[in-house]
Inverse folding.
């Protein structure tokens, strides 16, 4: 239709700009959210520039420096700032490379879970009837199992490894998206703008994807952020149990698993990878809280 | 009420069927031949293979296999563990009390700290206490609990030497379990030293397992309380001149706790997932560690039945929570 004529104007659309400004206004009120965002950006930068920042390659072993403590402790040296692990690898370098895995896990899992959840939720909420019943019963079923247990069992079927772990976690997290989209679609479906679009002759696909979906985005963004941090936690837990990323991959949970037997001798091999997980997850959860405040008009304080 | 209950139970039937299908499918989805997969690393002789194939019914059509499986499960036959050669249900019965005991203490820990903290934060909204509590709660919520457990071990067991590192009780104490709950059993036998040993073993796992529920409950209590405190009836109660303690403790709290009960119920699934990690770290002989060990030992009969039993527990608890919810909130029953 007249889409092409409107498009150039949209670029300079003052409404858009104010939209973002309003969003930023509400988001930045939440100090924690801004800190979280800042930390998250740092993490992304660290992950991207890991080869430049890391003093060593993540899998280089120094046979003269097993379990070297961090620089500030007796016996440590600035050669290995955060110390070395049981086979003489630099922990700092491994953590920096590990950031890549955690962020990748979060991104891939959320993308998979979002795609699956949106598709199923749209179908269920839009068509209702037996489609709805069938889809939602399966979602209920997934939620009937403790998430980590189901992920464990799925990885047992698929075989251990990072990619299979991501698949399993995405499947486990996906019902939350499906439920959200379904509820939002059912709420929006009867609205006048949807009826208007239908009367104007829009097909099912157009109604679902172009008319209704954009109005369900806010809760999805918040849920997506929370799932991002959940995915990192669950992947680290799977790695810790030996079913996620396999050694010598410098994934944080896997690092913890291999360090476990040394906890009473070398606190640093355990402390730093876990701290990295906590900081990452906390930063993302802070962002999530801020997004919820900013995107949910009901919670907005004027 | 009865109608509500029956309705709830009827809604569970599809999930119940689904759970059995999942457990049934699990063994058949494993890569390779299910019998070879279940036999583990040692493999089987061809004659024994045929025997097992018949025993498990893998030569039957798939729907007949499923019917057979449901029949077995319904009569309480959950198979025999490949590694220990004991019936799975027997193992479950000895291990489950350990998980239940730990989960119970973790939940008590979370509620006893979380509910008052949440109430206090809501009453003192925006205060220093409120902000630091909510900050701490978010840290707790973001905690990789397997790491948290290791940190506590480093500090309390390694550095201070206060708490034991693993198990439920020191090895020198031995007695025949009565209830399976060691805190109760030691008291029945009147063994105080053993009771103290049990408590010392419980402390760290309880904290680790209770951390995430604590954070969730504190946050939920605070927001539920904030919502209720702005209601008209609370203002009325204040206007009547009731004491602040009475308004908060009686008028506000009772209504604020309704959503908190649901939250607590929803934590059961989180608890069982957390138990997998907590029990692994502390070598706690419960069903979480049992599942992880069975997976690494490839004892798939145990994994299959464990999956089924755990899902049944979660389902049963959710039903209880739904009923409790209806008991404390009459509006739900009417709907």
């Amino acid at each position: 239709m007249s889409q092409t004529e409107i498009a150039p104007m949209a670029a300079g659309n003052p409404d858009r700009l104010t939209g973002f400004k309003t969003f930023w206004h509400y988001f930045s009120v939440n100090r924690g959210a801004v800190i979280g965002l800042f930390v998250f950006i740092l993490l992304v930068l660290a992950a991207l520039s890991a080869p430049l920042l890391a003093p060593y390659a993540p899998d280089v072993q120094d046979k003269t420096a097993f379990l070297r403590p961090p620089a500030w402790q007796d016996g440590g040296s600035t050669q290995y700032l955060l110390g070395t692990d049981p086979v003489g690898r630099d922990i700092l370098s491994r953590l920096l490379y590990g950031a890549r895995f955690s962020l990748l896990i979060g991104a891939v899992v959320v993308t998979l879970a979002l795609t699956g959840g949106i598709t199923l939720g749209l179908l269920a909420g839009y068509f209702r009837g037996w489609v709805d019943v069938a889809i939602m019963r399966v979602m209920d079923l997934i939620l009937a199992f403790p998430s980590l247990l189901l992920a464990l069992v799925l990885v047992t079927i698929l075989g251990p490894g990072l990619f299979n772990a991501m698949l399993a976690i995405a499947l486990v997290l996906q019902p939350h998206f499906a439920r959200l989209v379904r509820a939002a679609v059912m709420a929006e479906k009867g609205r006048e703008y949807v009826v208007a679009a239908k009367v104007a002759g829009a097909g099912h696909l157009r109604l679902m994807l172009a008319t209704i979906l954009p109005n369900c985005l806010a809760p999805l963004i918040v849920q997506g952020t929370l799932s991002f941090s959940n995915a990192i936690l669950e992947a680290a837990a799977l790695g810790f149990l030996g079913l996620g990323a396999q050694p010598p991959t410098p994934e944080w949970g896997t690092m913890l698993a291999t360090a476990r037997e040394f906890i009473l001798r070398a606190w640093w091999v355990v402390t730093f990878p876990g701290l990295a997980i906590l900081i990452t997850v906390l930063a993302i959860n802070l962002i999530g809280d801020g997004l919820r405040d900013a995107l949910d008009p009901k919670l907005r304080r004027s | 009420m009865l109608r509500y209950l029956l309705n709830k139970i009827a809604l569970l039937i599809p999930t119940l069927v689904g759970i059995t299908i999942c457990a049934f499918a699990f063994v058949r989805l494993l890569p390779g031949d299910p019998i070879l997969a279940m036999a583990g690393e040692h493999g089987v002789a061809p004659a024994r293979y045929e025997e097992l194939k018949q025993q498990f019914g893998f030569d039957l059509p798939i729907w007949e296999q499923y019917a057979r499986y449901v029949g077995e499960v319904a009569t309480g036959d959950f198979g025999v563990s490949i590694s220990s050669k004991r019936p799975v249900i027997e193992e479950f019965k000895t291990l489950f009390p350990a998980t239940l005991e730990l989960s119970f203490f973790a939940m008590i820990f979370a509620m006893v700290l979380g509910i008052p903290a949440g109430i206090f934060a809501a009453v003192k909204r925006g205060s220093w206490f409120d902000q630091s509590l909510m900050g701490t709660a978010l840290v707790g919520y973001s905690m990789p609990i397997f790491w948290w457990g290791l940190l506590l071990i480093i500090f309390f067991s390694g550095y201070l030497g206060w708490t034991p590192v693993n198990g439920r009780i020191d090895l020198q104490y031995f007695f025949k379990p009565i209830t399976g709950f060691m805190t109760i059993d030691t008291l029945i036998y009147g063994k105080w030293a053993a009771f103290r040993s049990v408590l010392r073993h419980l402390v760290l796992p309880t904290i680790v397992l209770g951390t995430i529920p604590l954070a969730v409950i504190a946050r939920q209590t605070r927001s539920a309380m904030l919502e209720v405190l702005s209601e008209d009836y609370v203002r009325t109660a204040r206007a009547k001149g009731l004491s602040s303690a009475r308004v908060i403790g009686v008028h506000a709290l009772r209504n604020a706790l309704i959503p908190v009960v649901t939250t607590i119920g929803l934590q059961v699934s989180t608890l069982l997932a957390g138990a997998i990690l907590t029990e692994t770290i502390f070598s706690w002989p419960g069903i979480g560690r049992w599942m992880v060990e069975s997976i690494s030992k490839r004892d798939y009969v145990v994994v299959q039945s464990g999956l089924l039993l755990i899902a049944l527990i979660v389902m049963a608890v959710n039903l209880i929570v739904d009923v409790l919810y209806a008991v404390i909130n009459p509006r739900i029953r009417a709907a």
